[in-house]
């Protein structure tokens, strides 16, 4: 199987009435999306969705768009020691890495913000 190109994606938490978990979408690939119980599962399922999307579009004889500007997925944020300690304790309590916890918090916050914007 050919390597699946890395496409930029967006994630948001799904509300309970949407089934819960996380939704992943790929802006460069119209209609390409997946979900998962955790952010990590949504990303893994998303990779499979991209491969299936490309296969379907290719078999229909349509052009496959090139990936947009990829984000590095990395940034450094300096936070107060007290906040770092709280994040570390919460990550340990949840049984996840601090990176996974902060990613989940950021995605949840962006999803909430987007939801409020849609209500206006």
Task: Give an overview in words.
The chain starts with 9 loop residues before the first strand and ends with a helix. Strand 1 and strand 2 (22-25) form a beta hairpin. The protein is built from three helices and three strands; from the N terminus they run E-E-E-H-H-H. The mean pLDDT is 87. It folds into two domains: 1-71, Double Stranded RNA Binding Domain (2-Layer Sandwich); 72-120, Arc Repressor Mutant (Orthogonal Bundle), CATH 1.10.1220. It is mainly alpha-helical and 120 residues long.
Q: Looking at the chains present, what oligomeric state does this protein adopt? A: single chain
Biggest beta sheet attributes: 3 strands, antiparallel
Strand content: 5-15%
For the record, the count of structural domains works out to 2
Count of individual beta strands: 3
- In CATH, the topology of the largest domain is named Double Stranded RNA Binding Domain
Spatial sequence of strands, sheet with the most strands:
1-2-3
Instruction: List unreliable stretches of 5+ residues.
Output: none
How would the blueprint of this fold be written?
Elements: E1 10-13, E2 22-25, E3 33-36, H1 39-59, H2 81-94, H3 98-119
Antiparallel strand pairs: 1-2, 2-3
Features:
3-stranded antiparallel beta sheet, Arc Repressor Mutant, mainly alpha, 120 residues, 10% strand, Double Stranded RNA Binding Domain, 3 helices
